[in-house]
From TrEMBL, chain A:
SUPFAM superfamilies per UniProt: HD-domain/PDEase-like
Keyword Nucleotide-binding: yes
GO biological process: glycyl-tRNA aminoacylation
Protein name listed in UniProt: Glycine--tRNA ligase beta subunit
Organism phylogeny: Bacteria, Bacillati, Bacillota, Bacilli, Lactobacillales
Family listed: Belongs to the class-II aminoacyl-tRNA synthetase family.
Location in or out of the cell: Cytoplasm
Domain of life, per lineage: Bacteria
Keywords: Aminoacyl-tRNA synthetase, ATP-binding, Cytoplasm, Ligase, Nucleotide-binding, Protein biosynthesis
Length: 688, 305
């Protein structure tokens, strides 16, 4: 027989972001607890609001299965000693079964008598086991826990006020602190009353009568449908925001959607400021017209019904206006000063106390970017824009707006730069230098923005490494990995070549004397190169490259992310071709021969020493391939060259008796190997 | 909304009356500058140790960086908090709070009242708590906290703190858009009392303060606090720690403190806050935790009150 079991934890208002996770946790822990205790069930449904976490266990067994089994023990002659007393073996056997020696009987099996016990245990009733739900509650984890007045050392996400625990129609009096679970739950804090449940199944409907929509999905659907109705009626648009919707769903027990408006004059503030004020501070949805333009309305959700909604609307409008007035104040104040005023103040803003001020950083980033711009032959206008952008790009950090809304850094810089008459490239670069904001975030779209972002991140990595703040495998407080990964992604996106090992010394010398941090000396920059190389690996893993391809291209001497990735693409693309195996094998064979001969000779192949036509054929094939820059062409070249190489080996003894001929042949193979290495260390490839 | 609009002083009377009916003592505002009601010794010191405590008081809260020369309708150099602290926190403290709103004429059925997560932290005083900001139709009118640590000591039993933003709440009740239009009492308006000080304090905080002198003040106050601490003079030491904190806020308003230096100053204040909290508990213990004793006596019915 089965019945449904309802368990509700009633609390003070939980943080919106923990509600969904916590009810899932409660369901998982409950399921585990029941399974471990041998109580079967069909399914666990969850309900959750800011004030309750609830599970409804459907078709829960009323008791554990009865045990009725016969266990065979030691042979009689071992079970009894020579005086007829129970041996240690017999005692151990019954103890292991939770029985006593009195329960032993003997039975013959294939001519030998053995000790047996017959275990018959009725299963425990669920009503007894369910009292252990208190331990399920005690085991729960939360991002932040708290003690309250009567909780002693016990901690929970918020104070617990009541517990409901009903199995079918019977209360299971789970005890926690000084609370004993019963059948009484609480309705909406203001609109509802407490309600006594006769049965576990009454829960959802009984609460609905008390203005609590306990089903979180239903609550969310109510919000969405009310919002859609409102938007359709007013001919507005809203942008979906799953995070905000989820949060709002978990801020209310009974949702009523409403809209409010504000004076149009506030629309002159940048959209991002308005949206931040509405969304982050007030949990409002911003509203757009049919053309996608932000308009002077907002949508919010009340925890209650439609009564006195006009009070709620006017109150919310008033709050928003106060916030927007603040924003206007910052906006007006900030615009009173030229950009140079803020740039001046960057001297007093620390980048890091071991490295120097923000003003110092600007100088270094400019030096790095100028070096890179030359290296990449960027055009004159780009360089000019970069020079300007890099001289000011952190200025918004000391504006009042960013002081208030830190998340608007970069965005405000862009707006203020535009207002101050900076050109579009400079203005946008100020915003884009923070990109990508997350590992897989959007990349800078403009050349100047990309250059500024790379230069800014390179400076951060070099100076932090120089100051000894190198990330460990578990600890990367300054997110240097994300910066390095961002650099790799931008380089690939822009097609910029940056062989780190050979470029780092130049970058370091470009910023020498511009920071109080010690800069990496001697071989120390290798560590940075390796750090960035690991991010290239991360990038390839993320983009589903085969592990042997990744190993092969990273083991090569190739340093430039774009080149590494280009060869990886070719190897990945042809990895499963029929021609792949013979080509790679022939190239590996060359490798092995050279390794075995310990050959590292340099010099020119001398055609005069050729003894066979195959040698000349290989030489001309190699000469043609040497001019190929494209990895795909290079690979195809090797496919064509493979029969030539095979013929070469068939016809010629590499280790010729004549040392001059031998050296010449090894030299020829060396040429092939150098070409092949451009694709990667092919011996790392797994060929089938 | 409400039949007759409450003046600020009506509001404060009602709150005092309400909370005293719930067993809170009405304390005077504490006469040293501070950034928040929490920093009054009636909260900070009384939060630590085992003794029970229930008090409410109005506290002027000075935040130099928020000064706006009296130009901004809602931002102030000095605003006022009505602070209620009860230890151990009663289980029905939220209901008390909602009742207090009703006393002010705010019926929850006619508004949208929400408890939105806001875990309060004051790192410079080594304080952290768990709780909410209370939203009244979207406006944060109170801060509600269960203290977990104060002066880096665990708060056991837990103390509850409700902080009403007096100007915010009054703007709502009187339905004005600018705090300066609030009626304080008997036809006297907020602007008549505070407009000029707001201007002057902003002028001082942003323009006329002497950074060099403030840095010296900070050092002197810190030295004094430490000396007093070494002599177990808890309360005067605490006064000087409050002065350090206010001086730091003045320096901060001038933008005179870099991000790195900031951490250093906060650490200096925090370490003193910890020491004074420890010293307070020790001194109370020496005196046999008098309030614990009287509470026990009250409970046992040995004492008539």
């Amino acid at each position: 027989m089965t019945k449904n079991y309802l368990f509700e934890i009633g609390t003070e208002e939980m943080p919106a972001h923990v509600v969904a996770k916590s009810v899932k946790q409660l369901a998982d822990r409950t399921g585990k607890f029941l399974t471990e205790n041998g109580l079967g069930f069909k399914n666990i449904k969850t309900f959750s609001t800011p004030r309750r976490l609830t599970v409804l266990v459907e078709a829960l067994a009323e008791k554990q299965a009865d045990i009725d089994e016969v266990k065979k023990g030691p042979a009689k002659k071992i079970a009894l000693d020579k005086d007829g007393n129970w041996s240690k073996a017999a005692q151990g056997f019954v103890r292991g079964q939770g029985m006593s020696t009195d329960d032993i009987y003997f039975e013959e099996l294939k001519g030998t008598e053995y000790a047996y016990v017959h275990i018959q245990k009725p299963g425990k009733p669920a009503s007894e086991i369910l009292l252990g739900m208190a331990d399920v509650v005690k085991a729960m984890n939360f991002p932040t826990k708290m003690r309250w007045g009567t909780s002693g050392d016990f901690e929970f996400v918020r104070p617990i006020h009541w517990l409901v625990s009903i199995f079918g129609s019977d209360v299971i009096p789970v005890k926690l602190l000084d609370i004993t679970a019963g059948r009484k739950t609480e309705g909406h804090r203001f609109l509802g009353d407490s309600v006594v449940l006769a049965n576990a199944d009454d829960y959802e409907d009984a609460l609905k009568n008390q203005f609590v929509i306990a089903n979180a999905q239903e609550r969310k659907n109510m919000i969405v449908s009310q919002m859609n109705d409102l938007v359709a009626e007013k001919n507005w648009q809203i942008k979906p925001d799953a995070g905000l919707l989820e949060e709002v769903t978990n801020l209310v027990e009974y949702p009523t959607v409403f809209s409010g408006s504000f004076d149009k004059k506030y629309l002159e503030i940048p959209d991002e400021v308005l949206i931040t004020s509405m969304k982050d501070n007030q949990r409002y949805f911003e509203v757009y017209d049919q053309d996608g333009k932000l308009i002077n309305h907002f949508i919010s959700v009340r925890n209650g019904n439609k009564d006195y909604l006009e009070n709620v609307v006017s109150g919310n409008e008033k709050v928003l206006v106060a916030r927007l007035d603040d924003a206007v104040f910052f906006y007006d104040e900030d615009r009173k000063y030229p950009i140079s005023h803020f740039v001046d103040r960057l001297k007093n803003v620390s980048f890091h106390d071991k490295i120097g001020s923000m003003a110092d950083k600007l100088v270094r980033v400019k030096a790095i970017g100028e070096y890179l711009a030359q290296k990449w032959h960027l055009d004159e206008q780009t360089i000019k824009d970069f020079d300007r952008a890099s001289s000011i790009y952190k200025f918004d950090l000391v504006t009042q707006m960013v002081g208030e809304f830190a998340e608007l850094q970069g965005v405000m810089g862009m707006h203020y730069a535009r207002l101050a008459g900076e050109n579009e490239a400079v203005s946008v670069a100020i915003k884009e230098h923070y990109m990508p904001n997350t590992a897989e975030g959007e990349l800078p779209q403009t050349t100047v923005g990309a250059l500024l972002s790379v230069a800014d991140k390179l400076d951060t990595i070099i100076t932090f490494f120089g100051a000894g703040m190198i990330p460990s495998s578990s600890n990367d407080p300054y997110a240097l990995r994300r910066y390095a990964y961002g650099i790799v992604r931008i380089l690939l996106d822009q097609g910029w070549s940056l062989p780190f090992e050979e470029t780092l010394p130049a970058l370091i010398s470009a910023i020498d004397g511009k920071t109080k941090a010690k800069l990496p000396k001697g071989d120390e920059d290798k560590e940075i190169a390796l750090f960035i190389r690991d991010r290239i690996k991360q990038y390839m893993q993320k983009n589903d490259f085969k592990y042997d391809v990744i190993d092969a291209v990273l083991a090569s001497s190739q340093q430039d992310p774009s080149q590494i990735l280009a060869s990886a693409k070719v190897l990945q693309q042809h990895h499963d071709d029929a021609a792949f195996k013979p080509v790679v094998e022939s190239l590996i064979r060359i490798n092995n021969i050279l390794d075995k001969a310990k050959f590292s000779g340099q010099g020119q192949v001398d055609p005069e020493l050729f003894e066979d036509q195959s040698e000349a054929e290989l030489a001309s094939g190699v000469a043609a391939l040497a001019k190929v820059a494209d990895f795909s062409e290079l690979y195809q070249g090797f496919v064509k060259l493979q029969p030539v190489i095979d013929k070469y080996f068939e016809t010629n003894m590499i280790m010729a008796k004549d040392p001059a001929v031998k050296t010449n042949r090894l030299m020829q193979l060396q040429e092939v190997r150098s070409l092949a290495e451009r694709l990667g260390s092919l011996n790392k490839l797994v060929i089938k | 909304m409400v039949d007759k609009k409450l003046t600020i002083q009506d509001m404060l009377f009602k709150l005092e009356q309400f909370w005293s009916s719930k067993g809170c003592m009405i304390m005077p505002s504490y006469d040293v500058e501070k950034g928040a009601g929490t920093m009054s010794p009636y909260t900070f010191l009384r939060a630590v140790g085992p003794e029970p405590w229930a008090a409410c008081y109005v506290e002027p809260s000075r935040r130099p960086a928020d000064g706006r020369y009296g130009d901004n309708p809602n931002r102030l150099f000095q605003h006022h908090q009505f602070q209620v602290v009860i230890k151990p926190a009663p289980l029905n403290i939220q209901e008390y709070y909602l009742e207090s709103l009703k006393v002010l004429g705010i019926d929850p059925l006619e508004h949208d009242i929400r408890f939105v997560e806001d875990n309060w932290e004051n790192p410079s005083m080594g304080c952290a708590g768990v709780g909410w900001e209370v939203w009244l139709d979207g406006m944060e009118v109170s801060q509600f906290t269960y203290f977990q640590t104060v002066g880096e000591l665990d708060v056991k039993p837990t103390m509850s703190e409700c902080t009403y933003g007096v100007e915010r709440l009054a703007s709502y009740i009187q339905d004005v858009n600018s705090v300066f239009d609030l009626e304080w009492g008997d036809g006297v308006y907020y602007r008549d009392i505070f407009k000029q000080p707001e201007y002057e304090h902003s002028k001082y905080a942003f323009e006329a303060s002497d950074q060099k002198q403030l840095l010296e003040f900070f050092d002197i106050y810190e030295k004094t606090a430490k000396r007093l601490l070494s002599q177990n003079l808890v309360h005067p030491a605490y006064d000087y720690i409050l002065k350090c904190s206010h001086t730091f806020n003045l320096l901060d308003a001038r933008g005179a403190v870099s991000v790195t230096e900031r951490a250093g100053y906060l650490q200096r204040i925090r370490s003193m806050a910890h020491e004074v909290a420890v010293a307070f508990v020790e001194e109370r213990e020496k005196r046999g935790f008098p309030l614990l004793k009287s509470a026990e006596e009250k409970k046992a019915g040995l004492k008539n009150d």
